[in-house]
Amino acid sequence: MIEAFIFLLAGVVTSITGITYLKKYKTLKKKGSSAEGIIFETQNEDAFLNIRTPVVRFLTHTNQWITGTSDLFTLPGLYKSGQKVTLLYNNQNPKQFIILSKSNTFSLYILIAIGIASSLWGIYLLLIIIKS
C-alpha cells in the first residue's frame, strides 16, 4: 500500500515541478527579452546523477552584465565552457533566465509525462488494493 502512495506522491510532485517550469518558460517567451550569452562554466549540482548547471554570462538590453545559473538543469556534456547560447530573461529581474534549447523544453514535457505516468500507476495500485 505504501508503494502506491509513493508513486502517487512522486508523480504529483514531478508533474507540478514540470508544469511550474513550463509556465515560467512560456511567460518568459511571451514577456521576457532575448539575449546572447556565453557559458562561463558548468557547476556540478548532483554528483550521483551527474547533473550539471550552466553558469551563463550575458548583457541585458540596459547594458547590465549578468552572471548566474540557469533555472533548468542540464545533462552532462550538453553545454561546454565558452559556448554561445541564446536565452530569455525577465526584464524586471534579469537573474531569472532560461537557455533557449529544444532539449530543455522537450525535457519539461518528458518530466510532466513521467509524473503523470507515476501518478496513474499509483492510482492503479490503490485500486488493486481496494478491490482485494
Descriptive report:
There is one protein chain. The chain is an alpha+beta fold and 132 residues long. The chain has one domain. Helix content is 45%, strand content 28%. Helix 1 runs antiparallel to helix 2. The chain crosses the membrane at residues 6-22, 106-130. Keywords: Membrane, Transmembrane, Transmembrane helix. This is DUF3592 domain-containing protein.
Global shape? elongated
Structural class: alpha+beta
Write out the strand line-up for the largest beta sheet, numbering strands in chain order: 3-2-1-4-5
Number of DSSP strand runs:
5
Termini separation (Å)? 12 Å
As a percent range, the share of strand residues is 25-35%
Summed over residues and divided by their number, the pLDDT gives a mean of 88
User: How many distinct folded domains?
Assistant: 1
| Helical amount | 40-55%
What characterizes the major β-sheet?
A: 5 strands, antiparallel
Low-confidence stretches: none
Computed over alpha carbons, the radius of gyration is: 18 Å
Query: Number of helical segments?
Result: 2
Element-by-element helix/strand order: HEEEEEH
